[in-house]
Write a structure and sequence with these properties.
heterodimer; A: about 220 residues; alpha/beta; Oxidized Rhodanese, domain 1; 9 helices; B: about 200 residues; mainly alpha; 2 domains; two-stranded antiparallel sheet; 2 strands; globular
Chain lengths: ~220, ~200
């Protein structure tokens, strides 16, 4: 009796399997969709965040600029006004609030160049870095200390005192040279010219004879 | 969580051992479903046996539905699975040559080895043919190179190139499969039933 019943059910086995298939496949279509987390995993983001590779120092950046390294793009994430007042040479302005616009996407989401973000300090640049990393963009770095550090180290380097190490003075001379590259003038670099007293000579002023000017033609 | 090996849940060293185990299971199931008979395999071309079509269609459906559910539930990252790259003309020409070999020899490469394992002489001849083919291809590789590595489309899937949701694609694919099963059953019933030894 049981076997007969089983045989009856089993005679429909292919139909049953087909229905199971349809239900499962249809279930995929009907299932409520949810936004999947795309981009980088939290663990990888944390790893990038604590990595020292994330920052570039002002000295390294100055070296890159002076050597005309073609492998990086400078991106200023401050407001447009501040960018117009002063920014690093050849930098591109992408204010933080326009970071996700399509125009900026082509600069940030690419594998060809290293992108160096900077702001006045590195606070805004760090925020931009975080967003870029979250979107899984590669080769994004932050200028450590931002433009403030740039001024304090490259444009206006502090002169080391005499009892400091050789490295400090070497660093100073590098920074000084770099600042000169960026257009800072040092008064002590100009050699004072010996003052020569000029004795005024008696000048004979020849009388100029008035010449008749030729008539200029044309209009 | 998954895939297990790329996510280091199972270390890379195990991959060959797992491959051997999967290979053994695959070969066993091929043999057990009668795929070591060239007449059964060639039946799909002559319309008296469609087990090959049914088995492979079903296998593809089971795996794709399973993968999508596991992806949905977060057990498997769909995007980190390996997708075989597409070399369009290489695939078309290679597919045509394999089809000719299949219909004339009665085996596909996997089932031929399976049949060799149970001592079928036609399968041994077939494998000999495969080896000769490999030899000729290797000798003439510089001649075939432009087709072999040209027309590269990257690691694309049908879903990418059609631009539709994978869920809808699988649903439509399932319907097509079921219709195909019904149609081939009708064709098979019109032919005489063949018993294999």
């Amino acid at each position: 009796m049981i076997n007969r019943k089983l045989a009856k059910v089993l005679s429909f086995r292919y139909k049953i399997l087909a229905i199971i298939f349809l239900v499962l496949a249809g279930g995929l279509v009907v299932l409520p969709k949810y936004e999947k987390q795309e981009g980088i995993q939290p663990e990888a983001l944390l790893k990038n965040a604590v990595s020292s590779e994330r920052y570039i120092t002002t000295d390294e950046l100055a070296d890159l600029i002076i050597n005309q390294d073609p492998s990086f793009i400078l991106i200023d994430v401050r407001e447009e006004e501040s960018y117009k007042k002063y920014s690093l040479p050849n930098s591109i302005n992408i204010p933080l609030d326009k970071l996700l616009s399509e125009d900026s996407n082509s600069f940030l989401n690419q594998d060809q160049f290293d992108v160096i973000l900077f702001s006045n300090d590195h606070f805004y640049a760090d925020q931009a870095w975080l967003i870029c990393n979250r979107l899984d963009y590669n080769h994004i770095r932050v200028l450590k200390g931002g433009l403030n550090a740039w001024f304090n180290t490259i444009i206006n380097p502090e002169k080391p005192s005499e009892n400091q190490s050789v490295i400090a003075s070497e660093l100073y001379s590098f920074r000084k040279a770099a600042s000169m590259y960026f257009g800072v003038a040092y008064p002590d670099e100009f050699k004072a010219k010996p003052v020569v007293k000029i004795i005024p000579k008696k000048k004979v002023i020849p009388k100029k004879k008035k010449k008749k000017m030729p008539v200029e033609g044309g209009c | 969580m998954g895939p297990l090996i790329p996510n280091d849940i199972i270390s890379h060293e195990w991959s060959y051992i797992i491959a051997i185990l999967i290979g053994l299971a695959f070969g066993y199931i091929l043999e057990a479903s009668g795929f070591s008979s060239s007449r059964k395999l060639a039946g799909v071309f002559y319309g008296y046996d469609f087990v090959v079509l049914k088995v492979f269609f079903t296998a593809a459906l089971v795996s794709v539905i399973g993968i999508l559910y596991m992806d949905y539930l977060g057990y498997l990252d769909f995007n980190s699975l390996y997708v075989h790259p597409t070399f369009l003309w290489g695939a078309i020409i290679g597919g045509a040559i394999m089809g000719i070999g299949f219909v004339s020899g009665g085996f596909c490469p996997g089932t031929s080895l399976c049949a060799v394992a149970i001592g079928k002489i036609d399968a041994m001849v077939f494998v000999g043919g495969i080896l000769i083919g490999i030899f000729i291809f290797s000798e003439l590789i510089s001649f075939f190179e432009p087709i072999y590595s040209g027309y590269y489309f990257g690691n694309v899937t049908l879903v990418d190139s059609l631009g539709i949701s994978p869920y809808w694609f699988v649903f439509i694919f399932t319907i097509i499969a079921i219709i195909a099963f019904i149609v081939v059953d009708i064709i098979r019933k019109r032919n005489k039933k063949i018993f294999y030894n």
